[in-house]
């Protein structure tokens, strides 16, 4: 079937919106009609050549939500008509990590930049017959996709799918970093550096976990206003103020219990580290372009301060557990989803959506492929 898709060809070029030939689902796979897909900086890193993928052309997009339209052989527990969120790290169910209930660490994870399906082959071809990959084994910047059941989380049918797309990536990544990685406790103090798609959700995750001091830092004034609305108690314009001085002023010179680096780690890790209290946690959620091979950590201070520096992907918990849990928290009014969406775009305007993201105009842009 021919499917309108936004395709990555080479670094630096905008995505090309074109018809791609999509094969029928094979064993363990299903066809999903994509109703909504979020615009995330991770795909932008690929478009800029800052994160290498193993093949091109490739359909990008990893924050998809939609409706199951057809099943291949051997699909278990998923039916046509089910509403689904696509998990950008598949859970094979059988590796040591999946058996521990930690599908965010699944052995298939390192393969998400390869472009191939779980079985190693491709389901997409362009007009010239060339094989086309799917980013994160998903390729959600398209009207339809074929994914393995390992990438699928079934959700309730009454949740609007544009909101469901948010719980595919940024919401679990941010809220989970606070709850599951740093394990923020009631009364803790938190610093969030960069309050975009991930950082704003760290703010609401810290609030959910009972943090009483939540400091948001960003260079975009509008993002600091949004952070206040999501629970930040203090804001720092990190373009003009010295972050470490500002955090120490709020925390009686102690620093925060947990600092989250949600943008540009090469530039922000050191101030975040120095703004963290002794024995505190520094959690890095932002991706660093592959050209950078180290981060500035003062080795003597690392030991004497007894701080922990840790990475966090997908909120450090299985998407199969987190996604239903986050939807339940949304229904209870404990977290916000609708307010995360700044603007919706048709697929043809996807590059405009990325321009808005990079200019700091969006908290989250969502593409509606059938709009
Ligand atoms: Zn994402
Ligand atoms: Zn696995």
Going by CATH, the architecture of the largest domain would be Alpha-Beta Complex
CA-to-CA gap between the ends?
A: 20 Å
Proportion of residues in β-strands:
25-35%
CATH superfamily annotation of the largest domain: Medium-chain alcohol dehydrogenases, catalytic domain
Total separate domains: 2
Count of discrete alpha- or pi-helical segments spanning 4 or more residues? 11
Overview of the structural elements:
The protein contains 11 helices and 18 strands. With 371 residues, it is an alpha/beta fold. The protein folds into 2 domains: 2-167 and 337-368, Quinone Oxidoreductase, Chain A, domain 1 (Alpha-Beta Complex), CATH 3.90.180; 172-313, Rossmann fold. The strands form 3 sheets. Strands 3, 5, 6, 9, 10, 17 and 18 form a 7-stranded mixed sheet that branches. The radius of gyration is 20 Å and the shape is globular. The mean pLDDT is 97. Bound molecules: zinc ion (2 copies).
């Amino acid at each position: 079937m021919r499917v309108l898709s936004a395709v990555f060809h080479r670094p630096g070029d905008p995505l090309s919106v074109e018809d791609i030939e999509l094969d029928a689902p094979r064993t363990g796979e299903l066809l999903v009609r994509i109703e909504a897909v979020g615009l995330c900086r991770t795909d932008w890193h690929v478009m800029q050549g800052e994160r290498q993928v193993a093949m091109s052309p490739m359909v990008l997009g990893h924050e998809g939500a939609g409706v199951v339209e057809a099943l291949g052989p051997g699909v278990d527990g998923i039916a046509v008509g089910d509403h689904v969120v696509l998990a950008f790290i598949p859970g094979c169910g059988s590796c040591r990590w999946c058996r521990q209930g930690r599908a965010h660490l699944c052995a298939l994870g390192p393969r998400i930049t390869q472009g191939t399906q779980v079985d190693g082959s491709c389901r997409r071809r362009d007009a010239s017959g060339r094989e086309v990959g799917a980013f994160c084994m998903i390729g959600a910047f398209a009207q339809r996709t074929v994914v393995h059941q390992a990438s699928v989380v079934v959700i309730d049918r009454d949740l609007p799918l544009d909101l469901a797309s948010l719980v595919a990536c940024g919401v679990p990544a941010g809220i989970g970093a606070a709850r599951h990685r740093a394990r923020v406790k009631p009364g803790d103090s938190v610093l969030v550096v960069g309050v975009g798609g991930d950082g704003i959700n760290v703010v609401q995750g810290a609030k959910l976990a009972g943090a009483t001091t939540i400091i948001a830092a960003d260079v975009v004034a509008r993002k600091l206003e949004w952070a206040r609305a999501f629970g930040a108690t203090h804001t720092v314009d990190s373009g003009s103020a010295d972050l470490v001085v500002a955090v120490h002023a709020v925390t009686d010179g102690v620093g925060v219990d947990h600092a989250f680096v949600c943008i540009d780690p090469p530039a922000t890790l050191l101030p975040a580290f120095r703004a963290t209290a002794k024995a505190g946690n520094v959690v890095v959620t932002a991706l660093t372009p592959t050209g950078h091979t180290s981060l500035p950590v003062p080795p003597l201070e690392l030991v004497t301060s007894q701080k922990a520096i840790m990475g966090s992907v997908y909120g450090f918990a299985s998407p199969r557990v987190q996604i239903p849990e986050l939807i339940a928290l949304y229904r209870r009014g404990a977290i916000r989803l609708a307010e995360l969406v700044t603007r919706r775009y048709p697929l043809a305007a996807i590059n405009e959506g990325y321009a808005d993201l990079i200019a700091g105009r969006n908290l989250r842009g969502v593409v509606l492929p059938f709009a």
